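Re: Re: ligand-bound prediction request (bumping)

Still looking for help on this. To restate: I need the protein modeled with protoporphyrin IX containing FE bound, output as structure tokens. Inputs repeated here so nobody has to scroll up.
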Amino acid sequence: MEPSGVRYHDELDCYVVWGLEPARAAMADPALTSDTFQPMNLSYLPEVVRDECPDLVALVERWFIFRDGADHQTARKAVRPLFSPRNIRDLAPEVATIVEDVLDEAMRSTEFDFVTEVADKVAARAIALILGFESASQESLQRWGLALSKFLGASYRPDFAMEAQVAIVELSEFVRSAESAPGGLLSLASGEREDRVATAAMMVFGGLQTTVGLLGFACKYMMESDVSPSTVGERSALIERTLSHWAPLGHVARMADRATSIASTAIPEGSAVLIALDGTDVLDRPGMLTWDPELPSGGPGPLEDKALHLAFGYGVHRCIGAPLARLVGDEVVRQLVEKAPGARVVSATPKANRTYRGFSELVVRIPG
Ligand code: HEM
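Reply:
Sorry for the wait, this slipped through. Here it is.
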């Protein structure tokens, strides 16, 4: 496969862009809109199912990740303070406590599933903390995040849409009950009540599956390359390498509002475009169902330039939650090294979802 390129794929009737420069150009191209929910999700859902999911349709349509221009900027700017360097620094001790509680509990057994016993719990609690949603149960947050990611990853599936509709109704009810609490996301998010509920749902969905994916990839990579990062720089290198080789979100989608061209390939108006975040042609991968331990062999090298990967996207829609994901990743790696030296991966089952990637099970054994 070429290291970068743009290709039209007949099977999916869309263009695929991969490699650092073409992908960046595509994500910065104003002709490629993020307003993709209707053409790339809703249009695949049978009308009768759509009618049965009114809350899902109405709320996801309001997500600012699917908007462009001033509308997007206003909504994004309103919630940015949650992820400011200062807020993230202030949250660090509480995140450390969450990781400690969860790891101590998991390590009561010498063998445990890192995904369900550690990554799911840490991600849900850290996201609840930053959003001010600590009164939501971890189980509910996980269920909502999973239902929404299954629906957005395969919108043609009526069963996924129905599950996501139930999740959105529960989430709206939760937001209604949490609205009067001071601080957190709901006091910052802009727009009408519906917009705030929509932003809450988008954050839970956007942050959970991706952070769980990152934690699983980082854990497996660290244990299999037999390294014990001990400084902030070494841990950061491990996390950035993990992100660059196993992007938890495989690609982002755009629609061509008007004709444009990427890396000298003409993209006609009305085309769907998938932009790979891991440097490979989305439709030509051996499949995210495989794990290639050969990729970044030898453990983490010197601190890598964060700008050298696209796992958090690029341009105006770049991930707003990246500082939280990095903090959580750093803390989990730090405590794993400290509490479980010599831990090994016993078995790994990659997730079937090729958009939100990671492991459905990652069994880890702690030496006795
Ligand atoms: C390893 C973890 C994560 C990965 C790999 C990731 C990846 C991404 C990517 C690639 C985008 C760009 C989407 C696009 O261009 O269409 C994005 C946007 C976004 N992410 Fe993340 N994300 C992660 C964690 C989080 C967390 C923890 C949160 C919040 C709690 C979050 C909230 C968001 C939001 C709100 C956007 C939309 C930004 C906008 O449209 O302006 N993400 N994320």
